[in-house]
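Researcher: Next entry in the queue.
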Amino acid sequence: MLAIDVHQLRKQFKVQKNREGLKGALLDLFKREHTEVTAVKDISFQIPQGEICGYIGENGAGKSTTIKMLTGILVPTSGRLLVNGYVPYKEREQFVRGIGVVFGQRSQLWWDIGVIESFRLLRKVYRVDEADFKRRLDELVETLQLGDLLNRPVRKLSLGQRMRCELVAALLHQPSILFLDEPTIGLDIVVKTEIREFLKKLNREHGTTILLTTHDLQDIEALCSRVIMLDDGRIIYDGGLEELKERWGKGREVQFQFTDPIPLAAVSALTSGLDVRWTKENEVTAKVWIPRELNVSDVLSRVVGSSAEISDIKIFETNTDEIVREIYRTGSPEAKEAVRG
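Model: Structure for this entry, 341 residues:
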């Protein structure tokens, strides 16, 4: 069964046009003009149960609008969507029992009461059995190390502590699908790593489907095998992360640190006949750029098998940040068509 099934989904908004000047302001009082903005433009995708999928795009691309339709907050203008077999905005009561939602910049916890009291209120909202609630809470509190925070008011938590509590709140009723909208925004690297490890464990042990929107592409690298990329309300890429790197990565770089100084001409001669490019970092360090179509091992065997003594080797892959920036920077129909494949 599919966790999420979206077909030709569209969302349009009416936006008021404000006319200029005093005369325009007076006219707006009596007769308002509106323009129609399409935030999501006939997108289709399917996510099977148990997948972690990254949903990425620039600000205004339509990510959050899509998430709000998938969680039943917004009603689509047209198209079809099913989440866990339910139409989110029609079958709300049954639907919400199977999903968890974390919005990085919004909270579902009550600000002035202890964290545990928020959890107890949510237990009643989701009608979770007391025994199931206790078992699930104990598991989550132990995993996320929240024992010392349960009696603390939410307003006294750090951002990292609050986000860990938000995850618990979203998972108390053991949903099969978790929607995460910028869950690591503003967090330091230690807390980000902890949350990523927790999400991987959640997916591995419970089979939880996760749809993740983020501007931090390290979240995508760490968690997702599949990426859906939006631009101006349309899907411009839907496929594997490795395939995205393969298609758009500019190649790899290998850095060699030699024991003794070596001139650029000498290292270039080691790979003569291969389509590579050498640069010098300093007297004993040189980098070689290797295109995707050439095996790194071919270059390594040439250099390592030479008479030059090597003290260190580092291989650098083009990361996802660079690839996505290049796609959006190019902005050309040819570039986006290449991504569509």
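Model: The CA atoms of residues 40 and 66 lie 7 Å apart.
Researcher: Noted, moving on.
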